[in-house]
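Morning!

As promised:
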Amino acid sequence: GAVVSQHPSWVICKSGTSVKIECRSLDFQATTMFWYRQFPKQSLMLMATSNEGSKATYEQGVEKDKFLINHASLTLSTLTVTSAHPEDSSFYICSATGTSGGTDEQYFGPGTRLTVT
Amino acid sequence: AQSVAQPEDQVNVAEGNPLTVKCTYSVSGNPYLFWYVQYPNRGLQFLLKYITGDNLVKGSYGFEAEFNKSQTSFHLKKPSALVSDSALYFCAVMGGSARQLTFGSGTQLTVLP
């Protein structure tokens, strides 16, 4: 149980276009979802926290107009990278907490590799 | 503010030998501590966690970790390393009202055959 999926697993896009990444909790209701960014050989940096039905809370230094997060249902959150640039190329990972296993554990998706050319 | 330190970027160990990956933390209040493993181009896999109770926590794949409150440490251990244990390991602490995880910088473990 407690499986989180991400789609797509990898995406290549041209500079200036927008890309949407989906994060789904498959077998539990995710009341809170987290979005992380990871550069090669580095740690995960929290970008934002989203609760179902409310606006996301962004970490300091993360542009909310560039990284649009929507958590419209208890099983789906999306991250849209708007007007992507090569420096946005990274590994994006989501996680979720909710009704499975209590709120003291986050379940991670497999990640999405974004390459902006 | 909470923080996690993993002092070793790289740990090398021979197969069959015991391994230790170090982690120290700083958090106000009682710590919720986690270890995760990441294989190349993959998300994080949960290994184990300490919330309360016994200081020695047993987790997946034969890993265990010892919580030491006086030293604010939560080192990951395994009695006998496997080549397949080679991966990137992250220690994390949870805190805040949103139950956010703060990760250490990661330790690349290489088990040599």
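Chain A touches chain B through 25 residues (CB under 8 Å).

Hope this helps with the figure draft.
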